[in-house]
Structure formats: structure tokens, C-alpha cells
Structure prediction request, 153 residues.
Amino acid sequence: MLSMTELLEILEGNRKLSIRTIEAFPEDELFTFTAVESMRPYSEMVQEVLGIETGYVRGIATSVWDWQPDQFDVQSKADLLAACHSVRNQTIELWEKITEERLALVESDPFFGPPTSHFSRLLYCLENEIHHRGQGFVYLRALGIEPPMFFER
Prediction:
């Protein structure tokens, strides 16, 4: 079992890689490029990741469940990077309120699906970020840009 500190370190390492992925995008393609018509620009995917993290971490820490998909006013790469840092700072502030007992608690999911543990919710946040970052890597390669090394955290 991971300690709370180790779990936060994993989340942090992944966020650092996501930030480097955002930084690799040219400003306009970050907000406009898609590989196929049915997909979203990477900036929208990142905002989803941040919204889910905000909603789940706040809910797990305080039992206040509120997810607002369009909560960020992001107009530029700088805005998106600032949102990434802001959300993670909020997570770090709330982290001390999250106990291992709280993570083991199984409750109905207020946003997406069946009852699950709070630990599973945090894993979902991580998996969602990794999934969308993978899409961002594909976008970068399609734009002729080498993505950051995925193993460098």
C-alpha cells in the first residue's frame, strides 16, 4: 500500500509531466488543434482533468461535492499553466485532511458512476490525466513536435 506522501508524489510527478506537455504546444495549437474532428483540443482535455481533480479532492477532503466542468477562465497557455498550479496547490492544501481511513470509504460517486472508494476516485483522476496526456503526445507528434520524455517526472 502506498503512503499518503507517496501517492501525492505520484500525482505531482504526473502533473509536472502534464505541465511540460502543455509547454511543448505552440500557443494556438494548444487551443485549436485536434487529430480528428470528434476530439477536443488539448487545452480542453486539461481543463477537464483539473475540474475532476478539484471536485474529487475537495469532496474526499471535506464531503463537499461540486464539479463545475467550465470553472476555469483559460484564454492562453499562461492561463492554463496557472490553472494547473492553482489546482495542485489546492490539492496540497486539502491533502492533510485526507486520511487513509477516508480513502478506504466507499460511497456513491456524485459525478460519474457506481459507488467506489475514495482511493479509486484519486486513481481515476490520475488515470484520466495520463489518458489525456497520451492524447496530447499524439497531437504533438502530429504537429511534428517531440513530446517530453514520459519517464522524466
